[in-house]
Amino acid sequence: MTQLTALDAQFLNIESATTAAHVAGVAILDATGGAVTRQALARLVTQRMHLSPALSQRLVEAPLGLDRPYWTEDTSFDVDQHVFETTLPAPGDDERLAEEVARLHARRLDRSRPLWEMHLIKGLTGGRVAVYTKVHHAAIDGVSGAETLAALLDLSPEPRAVEPAERPRATPPSPAEMLARAAARTVKHPFRALRSLARTAAELDAVPLVSALPGAGLVAQAVRQAAGGRRRVPPLPPLAAPRTPFNGPISGERQVAFGSVQLKDVKRVGRAFGLTVNDVVMALCASALRAWLRELAALPDRPLVAAVPVAVRTAGALERAGNQISAMVVPLATDVPGGVERLRAVKRAMDTAKRRFALAPAGWPVEASELLPPPLAALAMPALFRLASLGPAPVNLIVSNVPGPQFPLYLCGGRVLAYYPLSVVSDATGGLAITCLSYDGMLDFGLVACPRRVPDVWRLMDHLHAAMAGFLALEETAGDEFRDGVGVDPVAG
């Protein structure tokens, strides 16, 4: 039995009537063989749930909420409370699927059970079915979520044999023990908070919103030097997020869109302009957001600011539930009109952020989670997030890119044709989140939005496809002379 970390607990604390803090994905399967049924999925989960603690552990709350919750094995686990089935109405196209997924994605998970659900969605055209799976962010991050999914997948239509493994079942601490631990944490908290405050001060120039304050960089550098830091870390640009239509108070409703581009095309653009796959992803998002905001006559003159999750999880991702993540905060170059210049600006911004992260990994998300004592954090976080939506935005959105396998996988005998990851939107991080995963030669995008803030999320997906086509046209027709800044730019605008 393990206790949630402060960061894990924050994903519980931020939930409210308008915010559901789970991560999810939609697997599209070729089900022409007829093997993908709810019963088969339930049987598969039952046989393999020991491979991932997130599937079998539930929360135990500390008495009176005086401390962070604990994970414990659910001895009364019932798979029928987690695996469900629904059938889409005709015509069963991608838009109908997205509507059903958005409805499911808007619902919060039941905290009295292990924090996950799986939904088999039938009625799709072309002999396909979809499997929507969501797990609470308190239990997994992007990398461990991908590995949790991988535990259920196979390399061939014939499911592999998995040996059962007995994990020791820890006895939950008694209420008296939890109260004693809470009392000890309360006594130590002022010292922990001071330490976290000092560590956060050393990263003021990397903290959204705060970094734009006058003198933030000088204070951070002085604190680093006082703490014995000899190397000068690369300075970051001001990270002041401009106001956009998707920043502001969100509702509890969700909209979802998804689509794919070929990974070879992304790599081709990357080779032509010296960018990584992740750099091209950021450039695609910047171009799509710029085009969408221009259509609304709402394009800011400053670059949008994106939070980019970074995995810091080491080997053994499935050994414990929870998060091992940090974040880079990066300007998106949405203010740059030319396609090539936008690619170059994204590369500069990402190179700076990566160099900075390599020399001084961003620890402020974890340290900031430690500042408030657990009872106060649980009460204050929903209000603080709501308050953040009313003032200057900390960031405009979250953009996440998760690497995946480049070979076909199977679930209950059905081939996985695509997997669209879906993330969290909140008052503080914006009413739009873009997540992508590379799988079997494709880059699959999942977009989640609050319809109050982004009423036409499929239009944004169209702009992502158009941006990819524009970068390919630029690479194909412009020639080497254009890469030096000459020629007609098909992505300008």
Describe the structure.
This protein has 493 residues and is α+β, with helices and mostly antiparallel strands. The protein is 37% helix and 19% strand. The chain contains 13 helices and 15 strands. The strands form three sheets. A six-stranded mixed sheet has the order 5-6-7-2-13-12, with helices on both faces. Strands 8-15-14-11-9-10 form a six-stranded mixed sheet, with helices on both faces. A three-stranded antiparallel sheet has the order 1-4-3, with no helix packed on it. Helix 1 packs across helix 11, helix 7 packs across helix 12 and helix 8 packs across helix 9. The model has no long low-confidence stretch (mean pLDDT 89).
Describe the strand arrangement of the main beta sheet, using strand numbers. 5-6-7-2-13-12
**Count of β-strands:** 15
Share in β-strands: 15-25%
The low-confidence runs, each spanning 5 or more residues with pLDDT under 50, are none
Largest sheet: 6 strands, mixed
Count of alpha and pi helical runs: 13
Structural class: alpha+beta
Termini separation: 55 Å
